[in-house]
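We were asked to recover a plausible sequence for a given structure. The inputs and outputs are reproduced exactly as logged, with field labels preserved.

PROBLEM: sequence recovery
POSITIONS: 110
GIVEN STRUCTURE:
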């Protein structure tokens, strides 16, 4: 696999898809857990599933793929929580407002 093509497992929703939908509807508890798992545990589980589903296929650009899968819903969620206020969202994220706008455009969230 080369370039920006997405690994087969990701195309079939192993990272994102159903998991992304679950994250939209599952409440997060006070200790940052979803269904009894921390975000770190959820990522570990998703990556384990991803590698299992590769079934021996080679893959590249995993970091870029994971960051894109995580960053877009993160930005969308924080912006929603901030009531659409980009200045407030950028402060919550610890990003410069210009950087936030660039990322929002990158993921077609503006």
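RECOVERED SEQUENCE:
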């Amino acid at each position: 696999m080369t370039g920006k093509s997405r690994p087969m497992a990701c195309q079939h929703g192993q990272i994102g898809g159903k998991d992304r939908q679950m994250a939209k509807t599952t409440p997060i508890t006070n200790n940052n857990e979803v269904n009894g798992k921390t975000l770190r545990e959820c990522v570990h589980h998703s990556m384990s599933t991803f590698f299992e589903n590769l079934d021996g296929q080679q893959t590249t650009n995993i970091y870029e793929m994971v960051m894109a899968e995580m960053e877009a819903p993160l930005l969308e969620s924080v912006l929603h929580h901030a009531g659409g206020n980009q200045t407030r969202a950028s402060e919550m994220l610890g990003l410069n407002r210009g950087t936030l706008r660039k990322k929002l455009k990158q993921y077609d969230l503006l």
